[in-house]
Amino acid sequence: MLFPTTCILPACIVLVSLTLSAALNLTLPHQHPDPEAVVQDVHRRLNASLSRRLLSSSSSSCGTGNPIDDCWRCDPNWASNRQRLADCGIGFGQSALGGRDGRIYVVTDSSDSDVVDPKPGTLRYGVLQEEPLWIIFSADMMIRLKHELIINNFKTIDGRGHNIEITGNGCLTVQDVSHIIIHNIHIHDCKPSGNTNIRSSPTHVGFRGVSDGDGISIFGASHIWVDHCSLWHCKDGLIDAIMGSTAITISNSYFAHHNEVMLLGHKDSNAPDSGMQVTIAFNHFGEGLVQRMPRCRRGYIHVVNNDFTEWQMYAIGGSANPTINSQGNRYTAPVDADAKQVTKRVDTEENDWADWNWRTEGDIMVNGAFFVPSGVGLSAQYSKASSLEPKSAGLIDQLTLNAGVFGDPRDTSGISNPGFSGAGTTTATTADGGGGNGSNVGDSDYFGMIFGSDAPPAHSSATSILLSLLIILVLYTITNRGALLSLQLLTL
């Protein structure tokens, strides 16, 4: 690629912007320019957490190897430092701040009787405020929403310490906002509602049409992290992310008893969803599920170290050329001989999807499950991932041990319970990494990766170009040598 030798500065800036945007394939402002670097960071942090667990005494350590949980849960005083959780995210949504830099807001009233003028002390009153808030609860609560709960920027809904259930009409709406964390909440039996006025901020009340009945609806939003939630039985999706949403992590959650579990991408023709980037990690896709775990349109989806124990149609589906990077998962196929395939290209002929980048790396296939990959194995986007050969799927039981809300029946960790009072715990059996192509737990590199140092990956060529151009523009501004900027021919 060549830039002209001489150009007018404003024209150069426009040209550079367009060139860099094309080079980095950016369609959204919060899209990461190098998704592969994010994937490698997840691997690195998981390796570090598993290594620490291996080196610690099993009788005295609460570490599970799960890098998110081990970041905060071993602190016996976690309840006095709740906002530390915001520093524990991984993947594309790891920068979600929630209400980390704000005050603690305590929900003391479980009612939701007025969606235009909610009472102080209710959940609705807290989530619509303009300031960052870390929202917690004073007691166990069943919150039956009158209409959809519209969440404002920089909010955390933190259910640790109590049994918190959100149900009813509309459920959670994350629309055109950023920096949202939803943690340790039951969300279930959500129904469509609307055609009414609903307050979305202290200064705005607007008319809302009928909502879809999603558990969590993410619409045009960024920096979103859903962690340790249990979701089931909603009218539409359990979690849907559409209309240019990006920088999302969905982790440590439990999904059950639902048809269309998770939709990522609005429709095939919606170009902004090409910039959607989602990490799906350490989740348990459990009983009574049918399809869409997830169903993707466009974007880059990293599916890593999840346990898929039931589907009736397929687990991962897509259309419009999404990138699917499946690493270290366990897929257990149903009894139905016609539903063994993990993947489904929706309404697309094979000659159209043959070049899509769908990869399986180190996954364990159980009961006849099979993943149909596609695309060029050593494409630029996957050359690093292919060389890493993750092998940690044998540790799935350990990594997903506490998936869902802490204290639910699946949580048998024997660790001090941050979920809710009265939940029984038993002593857990340590996963030994056996079976399939799982790793040897004696090997500290659980993904089979070799890193020369802890240094971050080298800058991509496009990033180097950007830095060089910024230096040139700065020098031009300092020297102020005229309206024409001479650039030497650059061969890229």
From TrEMBL:
Record carries keyword Protease: no
Any one GO molecular function term: metal ion binding
InterPro entries: AmbAllergen, Pec_lyase, Pectin_lyas_fold, Pectin_lyase_fold/virulence, PEL
EC number(s) recorded for this UniProt protein: 4.2.2.2
Pfam families: Pectate_lyase_4
Cofactor dependency: Ca(2+)
Protein name: Pectate lyase
Natural source organism: Eucalyptus globulus
Membrane spanning stretches: 458-478
